[in-house]
Protein 1
Amino acid sequence: MFKKILIAEDQEMGSYSVQKTLEDLNIPNVDYVYYCDDALAKIKKSIREDSLYDLLITDLSFEEDHIEQNIKDGKELIQKVRELQPSLKIIVFSGEQKAGIIESLFTEYHINGYVRKARNDSKELKKSIASVYINENYLSFDLKQDVKKFNSYEFSAYDITLVSLLSKGILQKNIPVHLQEKDIKPNSLSSVEKKLNSLKEDLEMTSNEQLVAFCKDIGII
């Protein structure tokens, strides 16, 4: 099991969940920080002293306070950590549940595990730590289903434009005018209707409102 873990978490309840999990797993060396800058400083120090961390568990969102920080959020922290210690295992522990954002954490930021803050998150943390330790990426089953659905359809820029206009309260029949103003083609009403109907059919949606809600949930718009 991991011997040295760094926790970056600014919420007490989140820290408690992680702390309880690591106590149950008997991890011998655990450091806690409340700021991303402090997390990066700890990692730099561990590299200098040749006493590397095995795992970083970090939140994505960190509230601003009176202490000025250079690194504002978990994504930026992960980027900088990957530059310093590419082999470090990283688990994100966050309340974020949009499939598009979670997918990007694995594909763009190369995290090893994701656990959503929720009821029974201590159990999920244990599972994620065990999986990541044996070099298996971890994502809970419910979130896997959302990500799978997200990946089942590749949204084009045109698709996103149409749904974004709908989300702003623009009626479907008025969308062609907005497309024409921006010289976006195809921009006929029949083309718009055909594309939106195709989107809803592929994603098993029954209305434009449901389509907009889904795209918001997965982080497309």
Note: The chain has ten helices and six strands.
Protein 2
Amino acid sequence: MSIEIKVPPVGESITEVVLSRWVKNDGDAVEMDEIIAELESDKATFELTAEQAGTLKVVAAEGDTLAIGAVVCSIEDGGANPAKTKQDAAPSSAEEKPVVNGDQLVSPVAEKSGDTYATGTPSPSAGKILAEKGVDAAAVQGSGVDGRITKEDALKAEKSEAKPASASAKSASSPLVAPIGAVAGSRNERRQRMSPLRKTVAKRLVTVKNETAMLTTFNEVNMKPIMDLRSKYKEQFKEKHGVGLGFMSFFTKAVCEALKEFPAVNARIDGEEFVYNDFADISIAVSAPKGLVVPVIRNAESMSLAQIEKAVIELATKARDSKLTIEEMTGGTFTITNGGVFGSMMSTPIINAPQSAILGMHNIIERPIAEKGEVVIRPMMYVALSYDHRIIDGRESVGFLVRVKQLLEDPARMLLGI
């Protein structure tokens, strides 16, 4: 008896997914609940598991767009394909699963060389990262057991390490994936299919620009008080709470306090109504391997600096590992984005719909400013608030940003709630 494995419902607003990667090959023996493939929606990546033990029969191909409920594969009773040897059919451990090499799925046994088949072979997560970077696994030195390429090795690998692909590898690869390596001075073009996440981001950004009356107001913040506070207490803070004291927690705390005074900045438009929130779910823009994602810190207004720091670290780690759930990226009321980590001095961030405002942080630069009639050097940061003028007036937007500036330049106010 065989059963069909279909695309499961993965979210209320998601109608289709892309089959991004087969973890197991056609004809492989699979165990109950073993991961056999990865599905990617416009919001997150999901793992598809076997619903019974048996032999995998692939129906859909990598890169296919599948509707919810569509058949991905089937699993037949019994062991591996009889045409295969026992060794070829089923890996002897979880560490021997098929992995990605470039854009092709290959069996670790087929790559067996040297002292052990694991030498130079990436783990499934490492193979995925290398494929996204366009790095040839053969060019990466593995630090794992028996020379296996670990996830950390893949994260450290640079594209410059890639070697030109052989003619046979090029012919076997997808025409939508660029060949690895390029001859200096060449004028080759390469095409790559947009991921569901990138397509959704592109669509939403254009929609926001076209359907909102977006404006941006700027200010600057003297970061010296916060930097002095961090320098004085960072060791004690880390010893007590187990996390470092970063800038994001101060900005999140300041935003939450300012939102209480300017509720329109924390509201949204729904049809012909304004929807005001008496809570602050703060979305934090994070750069992930597949693009920008915006996980949410729930009820940030009731959290301490330590709790905010822990939440930021947890969400950023999940984003880096593509482990964020749809629930963790849905329902924010206000967004904070930090272009300063990439060196941005000033920008106009785009609103994260259906929210009505977003705060942009930038890099900290020592600049001369006038202070009590004297010119002094201070670590300054430009901040930008983009907002929807349909719901937020100029008085509210400027007042909100000034309040954030006041709280950051006198953090004692923030900590004391005054």
Note: The domain at 1-90 is CATH 2.40.50.100 (OB fold (Dihydrolipoamide Acetyltransferase, E2P)).
Protein 3
Amino acid sequence: MIIEVKVPSPGESITEVEVSTWIVKNGDYVFKGQIIAEIDSDKATLEISAEENGVITLMKKKGEKIRVGDILCIIDTSKKENKVTEVKEKEDKNDNNEEKENYKNIKIPSPASKKILKEKNISIESIQGTGKHGRITKSDCIKNISMRNPNSTIYRPKTITVLSSIRRRISERLVSIKNKTASLTTFNEVNMQEIFLIRNKYKETFKKKHGVHLGFMSFFILSCVRALQQYPDVNAMISGEEKINFEYYDISIAISGPKGLMVPIIRNVEHLSFRGIEQEINKLSTRVHNGSISIDEMTGGTFTITNGGVFGSMLSTPIINPPQSAILGMHKIMERPIVIDNSIKICPMMYLALSYDHRIIDGRESVGFLVSVKESIENPIKFLMEGSEKNISKILEL
């Protein structure tokens, strides 16, 4: 039986995708549910699984554009694994024997050296290969160029690859953001000492009770909700000639995964506790890292938080995530001397950056927003935990 594997729809309004990766080769035996390929759309990368056991053939080429619903490949379920393996092993054995007989007579260039030979118009016969079985290496080619022309500059190769659909889409969006928003960034710094003390005291109990870590992000998310309630235009967007103020808080959080930066959304954060937020972060992070995050989980959002500090960034200007109007950038926590009550103390400090669309957010709102976040982080018991240390256990649901 011949199974036609067709391109699924990655999301609404997407009609074309690009074959980004083949996990298997033409003629391989595949099993039902096995990941065989990845396809790129403008918004996400999707994994394609084999629908039945069988031999895969007639595969579309990597980099080829293909419409949703078209045939990506076929799987022949009538062929069994052992027969395929037997034939393949026999072919491989014959290929190996043939290669061994030919090694003595044929100079085989590596892919890198083949590129240099073509670019510099060098005859393969003029080079003595030093690789295994006399294979011509990249170093052999560079050495040959230097010997022929001692005054020549060092060969500096370059590789040109076609941008993936996602990377092209990101590029278009970044240019669009620059051209269509009046983006400005304001900065502040925050003392993380109080958060450190709370986490150190309660993190083990929190992990044991709820199965997730008590991280910094839940403190920042709740601090942002408080600040957004005080400065509602930061939680707004422009639509044509209208401004839309959202009275709910869907917070997008930037998470780095194997396929790049994804921005899934924690919805209705105003109704979530520390436990609820940390559990949502854990769930979304897991889905990003195993590649199962969906487009719906990344669509929407009223405000974004990104943490460049996990990569070591001390300070940056984050880019607005349209159609949102603002994004908060967290950064690396560093021990720095600061003045407290006329005394110099060493404290764990973090720079904060708020990039915002000046078309609807003024300087007063942007600065006030960061000051509010700073207040909450530096005094979490007062602003996030009902004003008393006795309430911490209740707030953390311990």
Note: The chain has three domains: 2-76, 107-165, 181-395.
Protein 4
Amino acid sequence: PASNPRPTTWADFWDVEKFPGIRTLVSGAYGSEGPWEEALLADGVPAEQLYPMDIDRIFTSLDKIKPHIRKWWGAGSEIQQMLHDKAVDVAQSYDGRALLLIDQGAPIEINRNQAKLQWDYYIIPKGGPNVQNAQKFIEFVTRADRQAAFCQIFPQGPTNRNAFKLIPEKIARKLTSNPDYMKSSVTINGQWYNDIGPDGLTNTERLVQRWNEWVLQ
């Protein structure tokens, strides 16, 4: 209820005594996408000190929340269904899935503090047959006015910050890269996931192995 305290950090999400209820978190089966940063933040690691991540500490933290997770979701549609059916009380979610339900009138609110932020990229293959046209396309779709227009069709945060000068405030409040939200967001370090250790495995591969063993325990 709005009159009661609500979880605003990952430490709160992990605090099942103060905030009782059924949880859902992303599965770690894919390695590069998992509840890793959340587990460390919940365990008191400052956001600016997350990387390199301590994998042992991650799973020690996950041990504490595991009994309270109804489902480790692997796709956005699963979150949307659980939220729609009120199958969970507190959920980690892609903001787009939650926003869709909110726009449909669902009694859901988003807390963006300590949100994980990930950028998408356009890549042009070297030696491709249409490099110049690809460059023109990327130049066009990354213009502030084009990104501002796109955001009003689909609520994904623009990478060109100047787009916010052209976006109505009501819509700007829905977007992940809104400057107000980014102040408390955590940017994912993609390089760390690709780093290779002395065993020849990337950190992503190491997380997958550890997850597959842990989740069956």
Note: The first helix runs from residue 10 to 14.
